[in-house]
Design goal:
The structure is a homodimer. Chain A is of the alpha/beta class. Chain A has three domains: 6-49, no CATH class; 60-162 and 296-327, Rossmann fold; 164-293 and 329-334, Rossmann fold. The first copy, chain A, has helices spanning 6-13, 17-24, 32-44, 51-58, 74-90, 103-112, 133-140, 164-177, 193-208, 225-237, 253-262, 296-312; strands at 63-68, 93-98, 120-123, 145-148, 158-162, 183-187, 218-220, 244-247, 272-276, 290-293, 322-325, 328-330. In chain A, β8 (244-247), α11 (253-262) and β9 (272-276) form a beta-alpha-beta unit. The first copy, chain A, is elongated and about 90 Å long. The interface between A and B is large, with 59 and 59 residues. Chain B binds a DNA duplex through residues 5-7, 15-19, 21-22, 25, 28-31, 34, 49-59, 116.
DNA sequence: CTTATCAGCGAAAACGGTTTCGTAAATAAA
DNA sequence: TTTATTTACGAAACCGTTTTCGCTGATAAG
């Protein structure tokens, strides 16, 4: 119950609150002896400064916000670890907000940030987000914003992404090199720029290989595994089915495996699979999954570091910084070349 | 940049700050017309109240803390979703802190909570935690604390757990029923009560089945997958190797599969495996993994709900509440009974 | 010896809300 | 008409800290 305040310390020591405050902040205006006395009593009474009083006065909250679609995905789990590690290092606190892929929520959350609650924002936008006024407003209110992974192209702010286009190109190319001619591309959102880029890489790789793009093989999936299972199953039970699949979202992996198993389509003999995922379990799947893994932890970490650069210096024009951290294609059994074609 | 304050609204409307404040909070002391005027201007100037000023005066932060070991695990990812969903519902903000399994960090983090930064705490303790003074002090300072999953037995507070003992008993029993006689138990921490309970269930199931407990089969693993691979490999390459494994932590799954594969030990023919995990990918592993899945989302959600019950009423003695949400044993191929023994 | 400098501290004004209490006018009760 | 009550608002204290500025006494410089 004992909420020790500076006032209490001051009274106890026959000092003014001003002096106590300065002593605690190790000001040169205070003599060594008084500082020691103050520190000792603070220790003894277990004094913990009220952060909100301090924030109010200093107009700094020592807090950042992380707004994410969800933490279901292993990408965001790892990203949070990266972010938190540097925040804790810098003595900052991190507020977490989930949009659940809803633009309305994202808007409401961002609107709050115009107050002084946070000093800066790390955001990966929802897949419903196709306008960005809410973000621009926050930036206009003076808060630095750093995008990571899912960005808004039309907002001028720091952006930490991975090489979505290139890695998708490589993945597609890898399938082509291993014999695929009819490659399907599975995705879950029309809005995300990240998706545009991956699809662009996919299409470009096909074109560069002289393969034509079949729009029937570009299929939009949805939220739940059961529904996706049906969608994928329908795609694969077709006579003219694809001989390769690229899943650009982690959660599509399970329904793909299930659908192939259900249809008795052997991976990789009948169909080859690549998934964008950070699941460690990829290498113990049956068969082990060829993956494009994003540098999730690194992305979170550098996003946070860029944000802190903006927070620590008053040099706000650092904000146009754009960092691309490459993803990695890890080749395993699901894309193994057929020996006897 | 425009940080609209109540003072600005007041001046603009020729009202006192008191009246504006009351109007915004829809006080009965203010006439309908003035309220409308105030609301309109607030809207127009995009007024967002400063939360810290409000927190300072009201001595409420509308913020809770969630302190976790890590979010690497899918359990905690799901739990965060559960927590955040109810917090957002109640209009609360959630600060997230990771201890990285370090007691020192946990202590430092908890110590901060004696200030008014948060109104309540949700915690799953680090595996180094074997004293609980830091938690008791926070409770003594008047903040409600709710444990979830990993609890401190000697602290009087609300606790949301799963039936670790029973589910472990069932898992072990399931292995016994399917023919295992030499069952190994793999764990990663000596301290956690959650682990004691799981081990207790394991031992009890063995005893009840008339099997003797072999201490060599109770093996302590560590943090990284590579090291665990070696440990498990050593266990399994033994002449007198186990014919069943229970992994009480998700991250042990991968090294188990790898070690078995490396030693060409067929699962489930040569060795059967059960893992405590929430990985959705369990059903597409090779072979599909029998799991004990914890109700992660539910646990997070009810932990938050219990906390809010304490926050909303002044009835603090609700705090001795203990809720156990059962885990689920999902039987898949890794424990399939041998047909021809 | 006089004046500038400096070390060490305190008074008080912020920061932006909330809340208590008082008060004037309007209305209702007597 | 007088008194009581209600309505609608304002003044000011307050939450706990930070920060500016001023003050005193001591020391250094001239």
């Amino acid at each position: 119950m004992s909420n020790t305040t500076i006032k209490i310390l001051a009274k106890e020591l026959n000092l003014s609150v001003a002096s106590v405050s300065k002593a605690l902040r190790d000001s040169h205006e205070i003599s060594k002896e008084t500082k020691e006395k103050v520190l000792a009593l603070a220790q003894k009474l277990n004094y913990v400064p009220n952060p909100y009083a301090s924030s109010l006065r200093k107009r700094k909250s020592k807090t950042i916000a992380v707004v994410l679609p969800e933490v279901a995905d292993s990408f965001f789990s790892l990203a949070i670890n990266g972010i938190e590690s540097v925040a804790q290092d810098k003595g900052y606190h991190v507020l977490i907000y989930l949009t659940h892929e809803s633009f309305a929520r994202e808007e409401a959350i961002l609107n709050e940030f115009k107050s002084g609650r946070v000093d800066g924002i790390l955001i990966s936008v929802s897949d419903e987000t196709n306008t960005s006024d809410h973000i621009k407003q926050v930036i206009a209110s003076g808060k630095p914003v750093v995008f990571f992974d899912r960005v808004c192209d039309d907002v001028e702010a720091a952006k930490i992404t991975t090489d979505d286009m290139e890695s998708s190109y490589q993945a597609t190319h890898h399938l082509v090199m291993n014999g695929c001619r009819k490659i399907a591309y599975l995705y879950t959102s029309k809005n995300l720029s990240i998706n545009d880029k991956r699809m662009e890489g996919y299409k470009k790789a096909l074109s560069d290989s002289g393969l034509k793009i079949n729009e029937d093989f570009i299929v939009l999936c949805e939220g739940n595994t059961a529904g996706n299972f049906e969608i994928i199953r329908n795609l694969l039970k077709n006579k003219n089915r694809p001989d390769g699949i690229i899943a650009c979202v982690e959660k599509l992996t399970t329904p793909i495996y299930l659908a192939c198993h259900d249809l008795k389509l052997a991976i990789p003999d009948k169909i080859k699979v690549i998934s964008f995922t950070n699941l460690q379990a990829a290498l113990i799947l049956s068969p082990p999954l060829t993956t494009v893994t994003q540098p999730a932890f690194e992305m979170g970490k550098t996003a946070a570091m860029v944000l802190f650069k903006a927070l620590e210096k008053n040099n706000y024009n650092l904000k146009k910084e754009t960092i691309v951290i490459p993803s990695q294609l890890t080749i395993r059994s699901t894309t193994k070349k057929d020996l006897g074609v």
